[in-house]
UniProtKB/TrEMBL annotation:
Signal peptide from the UniProt entry: none
Protein species of origin: Nocardia africana
Pfam families: Bac_luciferase
Protein's UniProt name: Probable F420-dependent oxidoreductase, MSMEG_4141 family
UniProt xrefs under InterPro entries: F420-G6PD/mer, Lucif-like_OxRdatse_MSMEG_4141, Luciferase-like_dom, Luciferase-like_sf
Gene Ontology terms for molecular function: oxidoreductase activity, acting on paired donors, with incorporation or reduction of molecular oxygen
Gene3D superfamilies: Luciferase-like domain
Luciferase-like domain span: 25-276
Record NCBIfam families: F420_MSMEG_4141
Length: 310
């Protein structure tokens, strides 16, 4: 196994935005929104790779429209590109935007890999990741000078991948997790590495309506074994995982209600060991940017408390 990437732990601040909505906007609109998020004070903007924009080109355009915040991939799939290509994209953006591009790399999910990329997923995600990182870190792909070492996190859920994230990057990005997972993840990766969970939220105080929006979101993820296996490790059972999720699971995965209630959930992750929480805002209109909700979230950044010292 290769040694850890030599890079400092990024200081992302307590709050970031995780957004798929930017992918369905014209790029000029996405850049304007990113610039506004930067001005609001968010520490990072996390962008996905699923079926829309290519993440390195997307990140470069968003970085060029902003001045301070980090742009992170949540996540770039190792099945979508060779290790040489992943490394080249990572190094290119790390050189062009020192300490502002954070590569999140992950093994993705079997239905996405085999359906979208027409590649065999295989049954050993951990071994696949180790082999891929070894090839990325072989040191033979890049010649241009970089002012600082580029930064990388791994998408991780289980204990082995979390441990690998601490060894082979600057930390872990977790997704579709309750607060209890954040506490377990902190224990698994140790005190120093970055831990950046995503928290999905619905700004609606109507419990029934909010859960309906949350269930529509959760159904696709509850069909992916990586997520359901992780929830089972935490003690969730068949009654919780079926039908779009039990009320108890829906409430644990998707925070809902007023700004104050949503902030309580964000703070709970920070208290459980997160360094940075990236918030994904769900709305009934997937084509519209949730600018009002993002502005509300920005207003509470100064009040958030970082994770307690140990």
């Amino acid at each position: 196994m290769k040694s850890v990437v030599t890079a400092s732990i990024p200081h992302l601040g307590p709050l970031g935005i995780w957004s798929y909505q930017l992918d369905v906007q014209p790029m000029s609109r996405a850049q304007d929104a990113a610039a506004e998020l930067d001005d609001m004070g968010f520490g990072a903007l996390w962008v996905p790779e699923a079926i829309a924009r290519e993440p390195f080109a997307n990140a470069a355009l968003l970085l060029s429209a902003t001045a301070r915040m980090t742009v992170a991939t949540g996540i770039a799939s190792l099945h979508a590109r060779t290790a040489m290509t992943m490394n080249a994209g990572w190094q290119t953006l790390g050189e062009a935007f020192p300490e502002r591009f954070l590569l999140g790399v992950g093994v993705s999910h079997q239905p996405l890999v085999e359906g979208n990329h027409h590649r065999r997923y295989g049954g050993k995600p951990f071994s696949t990741m180790v082999d891929y990182l070894d090839r990325m870190d072989a040191g033979t792909f890049w010649g241009a000078p970089a002012p600082v070492a580029p930064q990388r996190v791994l998408a991780a859920l289980g204990p082995r991948m979390l441990g690998l994230a601490a060894q082979r990057g600057v930390g872990a990005h977790t997704y579709f997790v309750p607060v209890e997972h954040t506490a377990a993840a902190r224990e698994a990766i140790g005190r120093e590495p970055l831990l950046a969970p995503a928290q999905t939220v619905v700004f609606d105080t109507d419990v029934t309506a909010a859960r309906e929006v949350a269930r529509r979101f959760m159904q696709r993820y509850l069909a992916l074994p990586n997520y359901t296996n992780n929830l089972r490790r935490l003690g969730w059972g068949d009654d919780d995982l079926g039908g779009g999720g039990s009320d108890r699971l829906v409430d644990a995965i998707v925070a809902r209600g007023s700004l104050e209630q949503i902030v309580e959930r964000i703070q709970a992750h920070l208290d459980a060991g997160a360094d940075h929480v990236c918030v994904q805002v769900l709305t009934t209109d997937l084509q519209t940017l949730p600018m009002t909700e993002w502005r509300e979230l920005a207003s509470v950044i100064p009040s958030l408390r970082g994770r307690p010292a140990t």
